[in-house]
Amino acid sequence: MPISIETFFLDADAEGTLQARIQQMVAQGILAGRFSRGERLPSSRRMADHLGVSRITVTLAYTELVADDYLSSKGRSGYFVSENAPEPPAFPAQQASKSTVDWARAIAHKHAPAFVMERPADWASYKYPFIYGQTDPTLFDNANWRLCAMQALGKRDFNAMTSDYYDRDDPKLIEFIARQILPRRGILANPQEILVTMGAQNALWLTAQVLLNARRRATIEDPSYPALRTILTHSSCQLSAVAVDKDGLPPADIPDGTDVVFTTPSHQCPTAATMPLHRRKALLKKAEDDNFLIVEDDYEFEMSFLKAPSPSLKSLDQNGRVIYVGSFSKSLFPGLRLGYLVGPAPFIREARALRASVLRHPPGQMQRTVAYYLSLGHYDALVRRMSRAYKERRIVIDQAIIDHGLTVAGRGTFGGSSIWMQAAPHINTNDLAAQLRTKGVLIEPGAAFFSGDDPPQNFFRIAYSSIAASRIADGIRLIAEALKAMEARPKS
Amino acid sequence: MPISIETFFLDADAEGTLQARIQQMVAQGILAGRFSRGERLPSSRRMADHLGVSRITVTLAYTELVADDYLSSKGRSGYFVSENAPEPPAFPAQQASKSTVDWARAIAHKHAPAFVMERPADWASYKYPFIYGQTDPTLFDNANWRLCAMQALGKRDFNAMTSDYYDRDDPKLIEFIARQILPRRGILANPQEILVTMGAQNALWLTAQVLLNARRRATIEDPSYPALRTILTHSSCQLSAVAVDKDGLPPADIPDGTDVVFTTPSHQCPTAATMPLHRRKALLKKAEDDNFLIVEDDYEFEMSFLKAPSPSLKSLDQNGRVIYVGSFSKSLFPGLRLGYLVGPAPFIREARALRASVLRHPPGQMQRTVAYYLSLGHYDALVRRMSRAYKERRIVIDQAIIDHGLTVAGRGTFGGSSIWMQAAPHINTNDLAAQLRTKGVLIEPGAAFFSGDDPPQNFFRIAYSSIAASRIADGIRLIAEALKAMEARPKS
Description:
2 copies of one chain form a homodimer. In chain A, strands 4-10-9-8-7-5-6 form a 7-stranded mixed β-sheet, sandwiched between helices. By secondary structure, chain A is of the alpha/beta class. Chain A folds into 3 domains: about 5-80, Arc Repressor Mutant, subunit A, CATH 1.10.10.10; about 125-135 and about 380-490, Aspartate Aminotransferase, domain 1; about 140-380, Aspartate Aminotransferase, domain 2. Chain A is globular and about 85 Å long. In chain A, helix 5 (about 140-150) packs across helix 13 (about 365-375). The longest helix of chain A is centred in the last third of the chain and has 26 residues, at about 380-405. Chain A has helices at about 20-30, 45-50, 55-65, 105, 140-150, 160, 170-180, 200-210, 225-235, 275-290, 315, 345-360, 365-375, 380-405, 430-435, 470-490; strands at about 70-75, 80, 130, 195, 215-220, 240-245, 260-265, 295, 320-325, 340, 405-410, 420, 440, 445, 460-465. Chains A, B: This is GntR family transcriptional regulator/MocR family aminotransferase. Chains A, B: InterPro entries: Aminotransferase_I/II_large, HTH_trans_reg/aminotransferase, PyrdxlP-dep_Trfase, PyrdxlP-dep_Trfase_major, Tscrpt_reg_HTH_GntR, WH-like_DNA-bd_sf, WH_DNA-bd_sf. Chains A, B: In the C-terminal section; belongs to the class-I pyridoxal-phosphate-dependent aminotransferase family. Chains A, B: GO terms for molecular function: DNA binding; DNA-binding transcription factor activity; pyridoxal phosphate binding; transaminase activity.
């Protein structure tokens, strides 16, 4: 029985080549049970006329479908749904009609926050995206990334891509992290001291799980990375927050009884302050005197384009007290979800066992692609290209901030990708962000960075990592105008 | 100053094209500080002679290095290390000389097991790999996987690949799971009821964290998946194990006070038993009567080549009590690390928040690649190809087991990819596995699957998912010979 030509139509919104869309249309029809085994498809000529495409495109799509055994070709009689084509399920799909479960009771551990920061998925369509931590398509080296991915997808790397590594990592990636990245931070480490993680987020989470429990005390910076505070809150440890100054975390303020200190010495998050060498040494001395461990989140160390980067805390550590967190999210892209932990072997062994239980390992295909990208030198070329662009944008944004009289609360003297801003005390930057969004400007309200129940509402962060230099001045002007209008109104 | 030609050599063991290896050799020398800015490289002709490669290969490598700003070209004067080339770190790399940390105290939660099952990373080099859960390169459709990866790596999908999704997933993958995979299991679900996970391992881990605590009781099958037992032990819940029979988990034996039951109805792990429909209904009724939840690990449902698959528990669930775990590890490859959870929205919301805190999201590039692979019908074609091969191998292995008089302890009547075997009571299959390994045969000892302190030592699992049909008979013969030799010896 021939399938009616009328049942075929190409979705105008679908993506992919015409050939791929035709393949998809036919395969979907078979999988959904609309076309049955043995039914004849319209000839390639009729189908081409009907869809308004070339006949060769239809023929190529049919040929592919034959190769995949969706269709069979019977010479001049045409194409038929294959006798081996998949059958749709015999039992009807159905949704649970009701629920007899008391979910408020059934959930043993609550993790969902009462309030979630709104993060537009379509940030790239905004004209002035002062958004933090996303990748700028004009800077990323997609061509070489694709080439490295192709290499990692090759037959030669089949095992590296497909294998269940259990608790292991790609030895090639470990080698290039040890050889090429860590030496630039003054760190020598062997493979037993390195663990690949699902980004810095996962590295911080693993570290908190291994080192903390209800009897241990963690000390964080205030303000600090909101996701870290969430991680530590879930770990149910005791938690202290120490206010940072223009040099980052002051070691003298770390409270007695602290077991683990989380710090961001390269670029304090979110103030971007860089901790000076004398303070780094004082922090290490205090760690030894008070017997605490230090978790060094060295994010964005690569983006040090105004001065040469300081040596990492880890490189100054004589006593094995520093656990180092690195990430490819800022230097490559966050959707990669790759970072790494460097620490003493007994710690890494525990973090590795926990990671294996939680997720086994980051995908081999991603690990191998990054290994190639590093080994061929593309990574370093990319970091230099990004640094040059950020430096240019930084000059523009610094000037625009002066021109419009905005107040900077913190800004990296070494580099970074963002500036920490302060509005008048009565301004709520959540309202500011909502207003600006309607004008195509994205900024990040600052309250979530602070510890305590009554965080200041008048801070915000603007990043220059995803906005073209030519757009910056106009964007800053719009921020200044919105602030001026809000300041003129009395507090509601 | 020219760089001496003698400092260049190609590592004979290195991988990649000649051109890539030359690029890597030069980039590494610059990054390690051996070649400094402004130094002249040997001419392409001299380098080609020295390395024994064609001149055009060297020229292409140099051109790439110029594009990445490692080298600069000065016309007829040749190639020089660029003035913008990266500088090696100024501070010397060093390793912590000693440790003053008491790691036995510093580690708050221990996860590393005392004993780790040895899993050879080089399993593919064994002649008789009856290994479970790895991908057979002769069955996997690498060409189409590469094409889908290429599409996901394209400019059009740049945001899907690179973006930080925070707690979201690729909407395209969610759509194809909902439209194309779940209907075949009789399940209708909307996007709020689906979460992408890092494989089934991560899905089970997230579920345990959300549903269990020290006051809750989980019931598992005995024997069962060892990694699940590890997850539940770490969750510090109360844990019961119920012995399975030839139809899987007997609902009547589930102890009172159970909050969550973990079960593998499609192919019980490791016995491969399929739970009959009447027992599925009895299990659901008991869940309603006793007010417990069911976690259905539906791994390998695709590998149902002997009979049509049974409807999933989830599809029979009228009361919203079943949480469904699916995985692409067996149908695509385990190194992909992609699976999914399907459950009531309140549960998925918590699992999503926890996943965001632990790792944010599985990499966008992997999610999008699978979405294309599904949408173009390659996934279904692959599953059919695998099913045909497994069916052929199953016939061979069943016959070989009869021919050599081995004892089957459990074998799927629907399909699956492994057979659960039993040796004489005094045989230790850890010893058996070690002996067989020296003969190129890989099997999996069975003790780790059992609950309790004194697990039986005489079970083992043999899989036919990664071994060619032509090798099976010989491999089974070697197992039988080793068993016979061990049985002849008195217990040591």
